Amino acid sequence: MKKRFVLGALAVVVLTQAGCATDVKSLPLAAAGGQSSGGVPVYFGQQNHPAVTANLGDVSYSVRIARKVLSPEDACHEALAEAVQKLRTAAHARNANAVIDVSTRFHSTETNSSTDFTCGVSPSAAAIAVKGQLVVLEAN
Predict the structure, then answer these.
(1) Which domains does the chain possess?
(2) pLDDT digits (tens, 9 = 90+) for 5-39
(3) CA-CA distance, 9 to 116, in Å (whole number)?
(4) Which of 32, 38, 54, 59 is the most exposed place for a label (fewest CB within 10 A)?
């Protein structure tokens, strides 16, 4: 009797967790709005930018958003947009005029690309971590 109860409880746990896997996605940055929107330019990977006159330090943030009814891709783009806004806010606070060398990560999967970003998405949430360098760039 005790054995049946334990096996039954284990089966319930396995069945409830079966749909909770997180997928790691690599998605195009272009669909996420790119560097130009939002005031402070954000340069992903090794994108070309004006010369750096001052490096004000590294910054990193993690963002997790509830998926609501969004598609996995839309949820990842929303998470990226929120993370990039945090980078821009940090740049304003530290008197930087750009964020360069931005990379994205989900757990151990990191992307330092100028065309794609990495995001983790599950049935309930999307998550991303971003890091970059706050800098002052030469004015054109």
Answers:
(1) 21-137 (3.30.110.70)
(2) 544 544 444 434 444 688 999 999 875 444 555 68
(3) 42
(4) 54
